[in-house]
Each structure stands twice: as structure tokens, then as C-alpha cells.
Amino acid sequence: MQYVYLDNAATTFPKPPGVSFAMKNCIDGWCGNPGRGAHPLSQKSAEAVFGVREQIAEMFGSKSPENVVFTSNATGALNIAIKSLVPQGHVLLSDIEHNAVVRPVFASGLRYSIFSALAETDELLYDLSAHLSQDTKAVIASAGSNICGASLPLSEIGKLCREHGIFFIVDASQYAGTHDIDIEKMNIDALCAPGHKSLYGPQGSGFVLFSDEAVKAAEKGPTLIEGGNGVNSREMLMPPFTPERFEAGTLSVPNIVGLGEGLKFVKKEGPSKIFTRESALYEYTRNEFSQMYGLTMYAGQIRRSSILLFNIDRMKSEETAAALAERGICVRSGLHCAPLAHAALGTPEHGAVRISFGAFNTYDDVYYLVQAVKELL
Question: CA dist 377 to 113, 212, 324, 374, Å?
């Protein structure tokens, strides 16, 4: 069966050909353990890892590649950022947050307030400001929702955070690779992202990029994982400097190398061009769905992205997704690990069906999707 893959918000598929080629070349040719020896294979791996740090720093507006901490996904990155920068106090979250943000905040015992991400910019900033208190330490927010078209005005929120002397931690899982992000201009203190979504790297890759000011605070905060990294081995504590402080154990060099190839693809194509193509497919699908009786779409109008959420009214979301899967169409149903966002949008208890476009989707894909949904209706 030929598949129509429309689950790119979970992980992009397929990947650019250079990703698997680079990973295989690494594994077969020179994949030593970086920082664990003076021999050529270890040095080659260390150079490759640092090269990807430089790519990330350049893409996201940092002059400090050493501020890039590699993780296995965005969840690991968010845990490091939240727990090292905000060990206690009060934080602000938006109402579209993924559990990768909500659960670390809750588990850390932080007090939190929620502001509306579905409002227009002025109203959003007013709501956010109204929740600030003397004990507020950070705003922790998704740049864009993983279930609908809502995205946040990063520059405006970053400016507000800087004015109040609080950290701005950003989950860029649905944003990095389709939008331009500059952590200095946007006053972002910790940018957290997976490698396997719109950066087109492999699963098992991710990172947090700290600002120069935030990294000083993070280095004074608690560590999340302790272990060996080839530095100061006689010391009982992790090194006080980044990235070694947060990178215990052997790095996944093949995944990092694959991420580097994904970054090259995104840079060559251009985030805005990728997003423009995805948005065109989104608009076509939304317009077709709007003419169908018995189908409900949710949000998607504010600072629009290329993710569409819907239900066929007489079917549960998992039934719709299963019926589409029988036709070779890959989508995702349920709550998408984002119950706050589903509550804000007013979806049913069973959630909704998510369509998410990627760089390799075509109009043939959406034509086939539209016809399949018409059949189900």
C-alpha cells in the first residue's frame, strides 16, 4: 500500500536522503566516542558534534555554540531548561502547552498560572501581564501549538519578559524549521527543540540552546542527569560549565550528525519557503473541509500554522483516524499529549483528528485526503 503521510507534527517523514547517508557514513566510517580519547576517530566525532552545535547556533541567532546542549528529544531539552533555570517559584504557561512543558512544571512543584494563547496579540499580552507577580520566574510557552494553528508572538513576549527580569523558555517543537527564530532579538533564554520534526533530523535527536545570560544561571542550578563525560573525572559533581554540565554519558553521534544534515536541508530550502508550501496545502484542505456538512474544525485562525484539527461529527476521532489509515492516510487522533490545548479549543472527550503537513507533501496527497473524508461523510 502507498501511504499518504500527514502526521508530520509527530515526526516528519520522509527525511531528506542526506540524513540516512550521513548517519550510515558515520557508523561505518568514523564513529568514535567524542571527548573520550585522543585517537583520530574520537577526534573526528568531537569535531562533527561541535560542527552541529555551530549550525544550531547560527540558525537560531546565537554566537555561542557551546551553549547548545544535545538531548534525545524536545522533552529532555525542556526538562533541562525548566529544572536548571527555575528550581522554585511561580511560572506562566499558555493554554496550548504540551505535556512536555506541563508535567515537568507540575513535578517540580512550581506554582503556575495560565494565559490564553488563542487571543489576539494585545489581549494575550494583557492577560499575560495580569498574571505576573513578584515571585514569577519565567514564562514557559510553546512557539506554536501541536494541534491547531495558534502560535505565540515570541518577540513581544520576550520583550515583556526582559522588562520584568524573568526567563523566557520556548518549546519550538512545532516552529523550528518553518519559522525564523533569533534568540537574541526575541529575548529567548532557552530554546528547546526536537531534531526529528521540522528540522528533518532523525528521531532521538534534540537540543536546548541557552542565551549567554541564561547559561550562567543554568550553571548555578541543579543538574538533571549525572555521570561521566570525560571531564574532571576525579570530581564527584558534574562540571560547572556548559555543555558538559548537562551532557552526561555518551552522545548519540550518528543522530547528531543526521540532525546536521537535516539542518542543511532546512537552510537550503528556507524555513519561510517550507512554511509557505505547507500553508498552501493547509488552506486548500481547510477550504474544502469548510464546505462539508457534518465536519467540525477547531481554531486555526490566529497566527495560522499548517496544522488542521477536525472531527467527523458522527465518529470518534480514533474511528476516523482508523478509517483513514485503512485507506493509507496517516493522521493522528486523540488528545496529542496536549489536554490543556484541547480544553481551550473545546474538542470532545475523545479529542480530534490532526492533519499536519511537511515539506514533502503534495497536492496529490490532499486531493486523496479530501476524497477519503468525503467518502466517510
Answer: 40, 54, 12, 5
Mean pLDDT of 344-362: 96
CA distance 152 to 168: 12
Whole-number Cα distances in Å, 12 to 139, 233, 346, 360, 362 = 28, 39, 27, 9, 14
Write out pLDDT tens, residues 237-288: 888 889 999 999 899 999 999 999 999 999 999 999 999 999 999 999 999 9
Measured in whole angstroms, the distance separating CA 89 from the mean position of its chain's CA atoms is 25
Q: Strands 136-142 and 190-194: what pairing?
A: unpaired
Residue 127: phi and psi, rounded to 5, are -65, -45
CB 81 within 8 A of CB 163: no
Q: Say if residue 104 is preceded by a cis peptide, omega within 30 of 0.
A: no
The predicted pLDDT at position 213 comes to 95
